[in-house]
Design goal:
homodimer; 361 residues; alpha/beta; Aspartate Aminotransferase, domain 2; Aspartate Aminotransferase, domain 1; 2 domains; 7-stranded mixed beta sheet; 3-stranded antiparallel beta sheet; 9 helices; 14 strands
């Protein structure tokens, strides 16, 4: 709790944003940098907005140490649009997908509109509660390898980057980007919707190796072509200017607070604190395999449907919001993205202890 | 000028927003309706956001008197995405397009990816300075008729809805929606990017007659399917929540200020004031045909390139921003969308008079 009476929001996304970032947005709302305009009112061709988008890209490049031969695009349409765009650009013969649940499955469905998609690894046999071994897949003849790095619904996360044996590796990082250090050079395309670790919903970051930009299927709508967006520096059509501004504020905030290294440390501390409590509890059970645990989405249950619902209701009363699990899997879920303070996790655990004492019969 | 030192912003879009709307956004930034969260942080599945999007749709329906057999969609990707979506859904045999300049031409290019597009009327012969007669087009065998209602670059506007003789009429209303009363029932699909009269950039409103929703080409990316977005009430994937909130605030503001009828009256007054001055001036020349004049974008010139540039610079110094014409046509342009107050136009004309006295040699 704080001066604005804000609560701890454990939503899977759109999710919490740093309070300092929201304060800047509030203070600049009526008149941005003495321009006499709100950022929302700036022309996307103005020098002020050009500074915003250029600085946002520069800072993202610093944060993720993005190599020079990768373009950064700020696009609309969410990660879901990338499910189609990726296939329209890279799927010529056949594509290899790793199925680790709902979102990789959605990517598979959307790619199949345009060609052959083979699921070459899956954890469906165990309700997606683990990450399959992807160190030695047979990728002969495949155009690219696709996976979803962090699975928000099941609370699982790849601990090792799958070995793509030289074919382009495509990754949906929507729910873990900026949460830990990564080696961008291992990837062909990384994409991420903003609404978990980056900013408000409405923009998708695409980080794409230059050699993958040019070719695309003849059926590609012009608006989905990486080449067009790349050449026009994300200004082919009017971009979501205000959302990009917000993302830029988050990037700056992260840089001013030790960058991704420091953020990763904080995230591990938060996750460890929560998992450690869960592992010692006989009341709550975690749902993901221990070796596949996400540090962004912690999925657990009391094992009792009604008790889980009561948990959500009671938590809400003390300012702990959105702890309900996804309908696909049920139970409880605490999404603890970058902007969730350690204090939020501590407060949650305190509540969990009390709830356990009261309802553990 | 006012308490926030705001200026008059004549940009073609993103453009001015009502100050009252920005003030609400500012005041609600840190804690929306005592939820302890910013609107940016609300889950798109929460009841609070559900209220926001439902109310936004209801109010838009009231404003435009949208019949029950039309769906309203809040989509991403800008009007440019609709250039492809429209063709992917409606283009089976051949499509008829009216070419009134840059934006209809862009729509033509994007539609041609998917089939035969014929330009059945055009004002290209006169540099798009007028709107061709579209009362009696030969539309036999065409799947639909497409046009762009208000042409921001050339400052032209259809004064009569083209007669589509029963085939679906598709209209890009990006730069004139909500500026005047319209009869939605004449249209098959109306779409509009938000960033001129609706709200910040990042959302596109699609108003579509129900019978046009279902069929689409087999090459349609799932994310572009009207059927999916319609069934999921614009929540198929995470929508641009904050931008929809802002649009909703604008809709409410318009309803509270007399609706579209009152807004149309104000817009005509503003445009008449400016055109009247221009028509009586021997220094400035308007560029659009008198019978085709837009009341949103007033395009004019001193006839001298350097003087036009000086005009833009001098105007900027007195708080009149973004008066430069589009690079395609040059000259000067005052975009006077809904949110531009009458006072802004009066201030502009006062400046123009002084500039004329100083530089009319």
């Amino acid at each position: 709790m704080n001066k604005y009476n804000r609560i701890f929001n454990f939503a899977a996304g759109p999710a919490m944003l740093p309070e300092e970032v929201l304060e800047i947005a509030k203070n600049e709302m009526m008149n941005y940098k003495n321009s006499g305009m709100s950022v929302m009112e700036l022309s996307h061709r103005s020098s002020l907005f050009n500074d915003i988008i250029t600085e946002a890209e520069d800072n993202l490049r610093k944060l993720l140490n993005i190599p020079f031969n990768y373009k950064v695009l700020f696009l609309q349409g969410g990660a879901t649009t990338q499910f189609s765009s990726v296939a329209l650009h890279l799927l010529k013969n056949k594509a290899a997908y790793i199925n680790t649940g709902h979102w990789s499955n959605r990517a598979i469905i959307d790619a199949r509109v345009f060609g052959q998609v083979d699921v070459i690894a899956s954890s469906e046999n165990e309700s997606f509660s683990y990450i399959p071994d992807c160190s030695n897949l047979n990728l002969e003849g495949y155009d690219y390898l696709y996976y979803c790095d962090n699975n928000t619904i099941y609370g699982t996360k790849f601990k090792k980057v799958p070995n793509s044996f030289g074919i382009p590796l495509v990754c949906d990082m929507s729910s873990c980007i900026l949460s830990e250090e990564i080696d961008v050079s291992k990837y062909g395309i990384i994409f991420a919707g903003a609404q978990k670790n980056i900013g408000p919903s409405g923009v998708t970051i695409v980080i794409i190796r230059e050699d993958l930009i040019n070719e695309s299927s003849v059926y590609t709508p012009n608006i989905l072509k990486y080449k067009i967006h790349s050449e026009k520096m994300s200004l082919f059509n009017t971009p979501p200017t205000y959302i990009i501004y917000m993302c830029g504020l988050v990037f700056k905030y992260l840089l001013n607070n030790g960058g991704i290294k420091a953020q990763e440390k904080k995230n591990i501390e938060k996750a460890n604190y929560l998992y450690n409590y869960l592992d010692h509890s006989k009341f709550y059970k975690t749902m993901a395999d221990k070796n596949s645990r996400s540090i962004m989405n912690v999925v657990f249950t009391t094992g009792n449907k009604e008790l889980d619902l009561l948990f959500v209701e009671e938590a809400k009363k003390v300012g702990l919001e959105n702890l309900k699990g996804h309908k696909v899997i049920g139970g409880l879920r605490a999404s603890i993205y970058n902007a969730m303070p350690f204090e939020g996790v501590v407060t949650l655990v305190e509540f969990m202890k009390k709830f356990e004492v009261q309802y553990n019969v």
